[in-house]
Design brief:
It contains 4 helices and 5 strands; from the N terminus they run E-E-E-H-E-H-E-H-H. By secondary structure, it is α/β, with parallel strands linked by helices. It has a 5-stranded mixed β-sheet with strand order 3-2-1-4-5, sandwiched between helices. Strand 4, helix 2 and strand 5 form a beta-alpha-beta unit.
Length: 144
């Protein structure tokens, strides 16, 4: 069973896909849009990926503040999740995404990806970190 992981941002959505066994997350693609409020093509691309890989769940990073409260970005992410569930019929599971972009940047630095090229990878790498956190919790019986 494959699971899709998403890192939802104002102008990009990082996408990761699990392997068929649901053990390992792989960075897949970054979906870009010109305006934050233009999501129709973003939804269509996500739906296409879900169909192509036969994904059965969506894991979506939830941007919380460091004190565990939720702000405007979390509210926008929850609205995005409602639309995804309605459009795809799949369950959306939230995964805390605090510090995932920093971790993704560290990984890219350690693997010698040039600073000028990190923008091309950071969002899909963050999505993979979000998805892997969920897969690890699932493997340890800490979620469904």
């Amino acid at each position: 069973m494959r699971i899709i992981g998403l890192d939802y941002g104002t102008k990009t959505v990082g996408v990761a896909i699990s392997d068929e066994a649901g053990i390992i997350a792989q960075p897949h693609v970054t979906i870009e849009r010109k305006r934050a409020d233009k999501l129709r093509q973003t939804y269509a691309q996500i739906e296409s990926i879900i169909s192509e890989y036969n994904c059965e769940k969506i894991v979506l990073g939830l941007p919380k503040n460091m004190n565990n409260t939720e702000g405007e970005r979390a509210e926008a992410t929850r609205e995005f999740a409602k639309d995804l569930e309605r459009r795809t019929g799949l369950t959306v599971i939230f995964e805390d995404e605090r510090l995932t972009t920093i971790e993704a940047d560290r990984i890219l630095e350690e693997t010698d990806v040039a600073h000028s090229r990190r923008k091309d990878y950071i969002d899909k790498m963050a999505a993979a970190i979000i998805l892997q956190a969920y897969l690890d919790r699932k493997a340890n019986g800490k979620c469904d």
